[in-house]
């Protein structure tokens, strides 16, 4: 019980203070969990990060869940996730209620939030592109995925593009050299891990069928957010196009509200996947926020619990590493497509909008300004422009 309480307090502290997105979160985790408390050694932490980068879902949240599981078993993973996630969930639910009942379409501060989202996603593309698509093969694959994604917009196009990129990477990089590394001790048995993986794939297959068969609004909501959480490679920013295609056409959230919430999500600490809480609250109030949050994070929990016991073997495979290289390049392409539609086409409608987006981008990339400062600057700029 003492270990669980300590884990909850530490993870809640991180949930209240971890600004800056997934990459920054990994730095906060390293400082708090590894340097200060020495709950894991450096190599084991690096291996855990590598696993979570490989899996679909919110990478930083999965790292936190994994540390909690290694520290205190399955309940520890749940406690670590709850502490890290709850602060931003509460903040975004409050923001959703603040917006409801207002006509925000022409509000200057909302327009500023949209421009903030453009700058932040552009920064994410720059950083991810330099790391995940640094050569002509991967850059070409990223651009090809972006182009096809923009011209072929269906519910399954991104999943198929990611799968195709994985197959291309598996073939092109099949002889990738993998360094030997010590294993990670995991207090989760393989039988339970297999059960988690069966549940993950079972829900992924069954939920769309059930939501169509029963035409239940709550089941459809759970299905949409579960699939979004299960099919995202690359972390929080990449969930944007998946969620937009789930909630906007369905009429649960308008495009203006969607982009306003995404901009606001940059101003709060914790994982970007808590954007689902805002969307759920806009659609169906507090119960909707709870359902959406559980649904979007459930795949992450099932996957990390299912994969951790097998990772020591998988990460030695050159084929697995090759597929991951292709998938990562595709992630850059999907995010690039999302930068254009819906972000750019909605937010950048005049030369002054482009000027403000450029200033915010420079603040993020070159001045290294904290995201919350950039959000405030964007809101102020938006109010001056409108």
UniProtKB/TrEMBL annotation:
The chain crosses the membrane at residues 74-97, 109-129, 141-172, 192-213, 289-311, 323-340. It is a multi-pass membrane protein. Keywords: Cell membrane, Membrane, Transmembrane, Transmembrane helix. Pfam families: Chromate_transp. It is found in: Cell membrane. GO terms for molecular function: chromate transmembrane transporter activity. It comes from the Bacteria. One of its GO terms (cellular component) is plasma membrane. Belongs to the chromate ion transporter (CHR) (TC 2.A.51) family. NCBIfam families: 2A51. This is Chromate transporter. It comes from Paenibacillus hemerocallicola.
């Amino acid at each position: 019980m003492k270990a669980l309480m300590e884990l909850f307090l530490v993870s809640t502290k991180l949930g209240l203070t971890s600004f800056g997105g997934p990459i920054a979160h990994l730095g906060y985790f390293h400082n708090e969990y590894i340097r200060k408390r020495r709950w894991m050694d450096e190599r084991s932490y690096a291996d855990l990060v590598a696993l979570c980068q490989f899996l679909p879902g919110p990478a930083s949240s999965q790292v936190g869940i994994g540390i909690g599981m290694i520290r205190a078993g399955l309940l520890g993973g749940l406690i670590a996730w709850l502490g890290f996630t709850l602060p931003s969930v509460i903040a975004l639910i409050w923001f959703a209620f603040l917006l409801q009942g207002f006509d925000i379409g022409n509000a200057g501060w909302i327009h500023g939030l949209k421009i903030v989202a453009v700058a932040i996603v552009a920064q994410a593309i720059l950083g991810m592109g330099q790391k995940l698509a640094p050569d002509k093969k991967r850059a070409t694959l990223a651009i090809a995925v972006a182009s096809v994604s923009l011209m072929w917009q269906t519910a399954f196009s991104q999943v198929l593009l990611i799968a195709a990129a994985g197959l291309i990477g598996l073939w092109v990089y099949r002889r990738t050299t993998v360094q030997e590394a010590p294993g990670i001790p995991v207090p989760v048995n393989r039988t339970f891990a297999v059960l988690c993986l069966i549940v993950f794939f079972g829900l992924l297959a069954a939920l769309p069928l059930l939501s169509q068969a029963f035409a239940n609004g709550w089941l459809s909501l759970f299905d949409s957010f579960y699939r979004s959480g299960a099919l995202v490679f690359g972390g929080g920013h990449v969930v944007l196009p998946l969620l937009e295609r789930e909630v906007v056409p369905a009429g649960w959230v308008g495009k203006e509200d969607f982009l306003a919430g995404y901009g606001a999500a940059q101003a709060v600490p914790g994982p970007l996947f808590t954007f689902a809480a805002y969307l759920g609250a806009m659609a169906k109030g507090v119960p909707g926020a709870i359902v959406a949050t559980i649904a979007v994070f459930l795949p992450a929990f099932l996957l990390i619990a299912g994969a951790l016991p097998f990772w020591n073997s998988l990460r030695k495979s050159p084929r697995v590493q090759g597929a991951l290289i292709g998938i990562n390049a595709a992630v850059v392409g999907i995010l690039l497509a999302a930068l254009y539609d819906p972000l750019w086409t909605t937010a950048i409608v005049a030369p002054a909008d482009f000027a403000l987006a450029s200033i915010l981008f420079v603040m993020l990339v070159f001045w290294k300004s904290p995201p919350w400062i950039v959000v405030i600057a964007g809101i102020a700029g938006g109010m001056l422009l409108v």
